[in-house]
Write a structure and sequence with these properties.
Blueprint: E1 2-4, E2 11-15, H1 24-31, E3 35-39, H2 45-49, E4 55-58, H3 64-73, E5 81-85, E6 99-102, H4 107-140, E7 144-148, E8 154-157, H5 159-165, H6 169-172, H7 177-180, H8 183-192, E9 200-207, E10 210-222, H9 228-234, E11 244-253, H10 255-278
Parallel strand pairs: 2-3, 2-4, 4-5, 5-6
Antiparallel strand pairs: 1-3, 7-8, 7-11, 9-10, 10-11
Length: about 280
């Protein structure tokens, strides 16, 4: 393998069966400021993974298994694949292709396609990182949080809710809420939440020797959108489905507040009784 251009704006892997020093694809990309590495189709995924390629440009003889293994091994999500072909094939014959260009190539056509695929790749990575940050915050909250779909199946729950359910958070996903509730937790939900009867529920009830404020809000909706990589590789732009209705349930431990309120109430009663005795 050979590399070029240390001052790179992005890392591109060129898979070519017969690489030559004057390969125009490598020359054009290097001139544009990209860092290009070249490897034959026979290369092993282990040898190529360390390159951390953001884009793969493959020729007609590219090994589909190699492209799949590189995709799986990528720590940054799906690696877009631009395939260079002598003739345009049916999309179904190229499951690992995100875009194709027909040879002979034009420099402007190659560079604009590369820039487009790199922008999509970076947008997907940014979305994945934002999702990870949201999940970290979601799990770190002291309140127990549960998100249900329209059929009352668990879409997500944080670690606090998972501990109350006695399950791993991942194990709860996709299961019906009624399957997960038992004992005192079932009694708590029965007292505080009646699905579909109104948009928002608020109630306080006891369980496990504690008091919880339960808020169930059925007014949320989750916009449904296909994954970008799936959309690219299908060759179609599907219409957006309607938003999915959601229910967000929050359990807040209000035991200390209830104890303080009870203490204030008793003190007020004692003061009132003392005042009456003086009279």
């Amino acid at each position: 393998m050979e590399g070029s251009s240390a001052a790179a704006v992005s890392r591109i892997l060129r898979i070519h069966e017969h690489p030559t020093p004057d390969d125009p694809v490598v020359s054009w990309l290097t001139e544009a400021g990209h860092c290009v590495s070249v490897a034959p189709p026979s290369a092993s995924p282990e040898d190529l993974t360390d390159l951390q390629a953001e884009l793969i440009i493959a020729g007609p003889s590219a090994n589909g298994a190699l492209l799949r293994d590189l995709d799986v091994a990528s720590a940054g999500g799906t690696i877009p694949v631009l395939q260079l072909l002598a003739a345009e094939p049916p999309v179904r014959d190229c499951p690992f292709m995100d875009a194709c260009l027909i040879e002979p190539l034009k420099q402007c056509e190659l560079l604009s396609t590369v820039q487009l695929l790199l922008r999509v790749r970076r947008s997907e990575r940014a979305a994945a990182q934002a999702s990870q940050r949201w999940q970290h915050t979601f799990d770190a909250m002291s309140d127990a949080l549960l998100v249900l779909d329209a059929e009352q199946r668990v879409l997500s729950c944080n670690q606090t809710m998972a501990r109350l359910l006695g399950l791993d958070a991942d194990a709860a996903q996709g299961r019906a809420l009624t399957e997960l509730l038992s004992g005192e937790l079932r009694d708590l939900f029965d007292k505080a939440y009646s699905p579909g009867s109104q948009a928002r529920w608020e109630a306080e009830a006891g369980a496990f020797g504690r008091f919880y404020r339960v808020v169930a809000d059925e007014s949320h909706a989750l916009p449904s959108a296909p994954q970008a990589s799936a959309t690219r590789r299908s060759g179609r732009t599907p219409s957006s489905p309607p938003p999915e209705p959601l229910t967000v349930i929050t359990l807040s431990d209000v035991t200390e507040r209830r104890q303080l309120e009870e203490g204030y109430r008793r003190t007020a009663q004692e003061l009132s009784a003392a005042a009456r005795r003086k009279d």
